[in-house]
Design goal:
- The complex is a heterodimer of chains A (309) and B (445).
- With 309 residues, chain A is an alpha/beta fold.
- In chain A, 37% of the residues lie in helices and 15% in strands.
- Chain A folds into two domains: 16-137 and 289-308, 3-Layer(aba) Sandwich (Rossmann fold); 150-283, Rossmann fold (3-Layer(aba) Sandwich), CATH 3.40.50.1370.
- In chain A, the strands form two sheets. In chain A, strands 7-6-5-8-9 form a five-stranded parallel sheet. Chain A has a four-stranded parallel sheet with strand order 2-1-3-4, sandwiched between helices.
- The longest helix of chain A is centred in the last third of the chain and has 20 residues, at 285-304.
- Chain A is globular and about 55 Å long.
- The model of chain A has no long low-confidence stretch (mean pLDDT 93).
- Chain B has one domain: Metal-dependent hydrolases (TIM Barrel, Alpha-Beta Barrel).
- The radius of gyration of chain B is 21 Å and the shape is globular.
- The two termini of chain B are 31 Å apart.
- Classes of the chains: A alpha/beta (309), B alpha/beta (445).
- Chain A binds chain B through residues 12, 89-91, 109, 111-114, 116-117, 120, 132-135, 166-169, 172, 195-198, 200-202, and chain B through 197-199, 201-206, 208, 288-289, 291-292, 333, 336-341.
Amino acid sequence: MGFRRKDLLGTRDLSAVEIRTLLESAESFKEIAERPLKKVPALRGKTVVNLFFEPSTRTRTSFEIAAKRLSADAVNISASTSSVVKGESLVDTVDNIQAMAPDIIVVRHKFVGAAHLIAERIGASVVNAGDGANEHPTQALLDLLTISEHKKLEPGLTVAIIGDIAHSRVARSNIWALTTLGITVRVCAPPTMLPRGLEEIAGVRVCRRPEEALEGADVVMMLRIQLERQDRLLFPSVRDYARIFGLNRQRLELACPDAIVMHPGPMNRGVEITSEVADGKHSVILNQVSNGVALRMAVLFLLGGQGRE
Amino acid sequence: MSEKKSSLLLKNGRLIDAGQNLDGKFDIFLVDGKVKEVASDLDVVADQVIDLDGLWVLPGAIDLHVHLREPGYEYKETILSGAEAAVAGGFTSIACMANTYPINDNAAVTRFILEQARSAPAKVLPIAAISKGMQGEVLVEMGDLVEAGAVAFSDDGKTVPNSKLLRHALEYASLFDKPLLCHCQDDALFADGVIHEGMISAGHGLAGIPSLAEEIDIARTIMLAEYLKVSVHICHLSSRGGVELVRAAKARGVRVTAEATPHHLFLDERAVVDLAYREALDETVKPSMLCYNTNSKMSPPLRAAEDVAALRQALAEGTIDVVATDHAPHEATEKAVEYSLAPFGVIGLETALALALRLVQEGDLTLLQMVARMSLAPAAILGLDDRGTLAPGMAADLMIVDPEREWVVDPAKFQSKARNTPFTGWRLKGRVIKTIVDGRVVFSS
């Protein structure tokens, strides 16, 4: 077995073998979505808690469906209904959940390291469903799964990631996973959204302009621009951003003719990506969503099922 | 012979005293709380004689930067518990910062601190705020505070953003020959940062605090002191750029002094994601978390490896005058939170000496330099002319060190109420076995 961990906290320290094991397992779960009865008994009797301290519809739903298709009991706890609003600390909240003996906790939190803090503290498996701007490993893995449907995941492939790199856990998790597989990664962001020194630490090529990043790229990943950051002096206006960094049909022509276009969602249509591209023939954005369920089934299965036994 | 009633003879120890430029076997005769005589083979009758063969005698360390949390945050630390931690670490004098509750911005609080300190084993020296409420708007009543016992002024924890107010503070404090201890930080650049802006912040998405945030404010502070021809002290230097600014200013003749903390001299940004990156921690005492452990979070933050190297070099050459701990106690549950939510600060009183000795062991400092940075220089900066060296006539404030004693940092054994050290599990060599204040043994292990 190529994956024997208690937790999945990030892609940073996953080996190529672990990544490929997760992807192969996900591949085998894809087929379940096509069955009339979309359920297997793999995690029957196991409890999966979705502990979301940040609002999220798609990721939480994806994990919930994944858990249910594996016959696990899935419980959703969101910050608005939890004791967090009553001022309880994360540690206390987690101790209380642990006392109810869950098998897997899926955590989304606005602060870096929250999933690590929980994983360190409890015996249950922890899946990081996003911690601040740090990691979102299942998103990166489902992105890889999606790429693998169109391209070979091996050296020679070029992936361009364009958008707010500094604040993006999706970008980071993708960078670690892709570079571990020897894939070439180019990143492009406004200078205000590019962490200093990323080039050296991550082994990526930093491109000043999107045209440079797109040139001959096999895969184009557009990141969501958080419009609420606009008042924090990071870019002058949405209009300016869209003009310089947005992906439109003309810019996409710079990429390889059979390039695929990805977006982790939710999209700001007309800002980082035009509708024409988002809904066009290169787009695999909805495939990403479908693959998300299969990939998360694989993660839950490997952490909570026979993977660990 | 009344002096005999409280006389103590320390025999055969190795005295290391930068103030007298002495390093060798000397006997030290302490009478009535003061050093009476230092010589080889002293033949005097003393009330008590302690043989120190194989042990070292150092002037008591003086920490000009600690947070004692009383009044207001006694659950973190009290003046008494902080002073007990101090003497356990060889510190005989500690100067406590003003960010208590209420803030030490008036004589009543200063007097309260001194009153509480009367039963404390170490000498506690209150530092008053620069501005009322540390709000950076109105100067404190400096004259009144000096009369009440304030030894220095600092809004530590915050900068004084208004340059005109900082100018007036520097000018007015010079009237009393009391130093301003400046926490240099450009607030807008610091923003919501939690760790150094560098390879770890880039890789892990934690908000960064650029070195620039410190350097810009150090430059401003030095320029003011230079223009006004007054002295100023820079707290907790953390960056290579900051070192270069202080070095250049000293070369121009500016009266600027600076301190560095043990944690900035030993740890860099990698400690945020691996608290054990530098050490093979003792198996029996490990930190609860190695990754994103909040005991790697302080302000200014742990910076890059090249900054650590620059600080060590600066300490050796004297650009950095003082090792100060910035002892900042927090209660365990306050630190057991998400990294971004944790308060800044770590404790240091009980590990500083052994870490300073390790700088000697690692070849960065000579023993005499180390002693100068921990006792002589801080006494000079605070204008304490009765301590910092063990010359005859000085206060009998000293520590006795077993240089061969190896020990493991175990926060559970600290005298401090707090446990928030980044050095848990470190194996250190050299330990304080006795601390003497005014001729009286106040700590003995």
